[in-house]
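Form 7-S
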Amino acid sequence: MFGKATRRLALAVGLAAAALTATQPAFAQNEEIRLPIGDGCPDFNLGILFTGGNLVTREFDDAAGNPVRTITAGKGFDLTYTNYGDDPANFVAGESVTVKTAGSVAKTVYNPDGTKTVTGTGHNGLILFPTDIPAGPTTTHYIGRIVYNIDAKDVFTLVSTTGQERDICAELA
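Output:
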């Protein structure tokens, strides 16, 4: 249904951010993505519904027209995370939790080696997959600052976090 980069919420939530980093599409109002067991959370299928949001994205290019950085800022999406159970073939809605976001800023720098460095401040949701560093699956909502790198294969490496962390998987388990 969605590719890895599309499912990724490296969100500067507010982005839920969708932070949107450059690897992510803009999510539509009331759009829900669903992640199978092992992608978003270890023990259940996870749904994420995006509502609201008013983000502005600016891309800055070098003299040759190549992007060097992107900034996305504004009132991000409110996120409703839903536990859809442990049947990989049948998503049955269970407990949900909604995170009301107050805004965020995501700055993406395109590095010369082809990687990207994303710095998100404010409300940020971040999903790490088993292929990421540290290995997921984890879904965490941060209020503060997060920094992560994205390589050419869309592997995320979490560099640092400051502020509050909310473990969405543990909360919905």
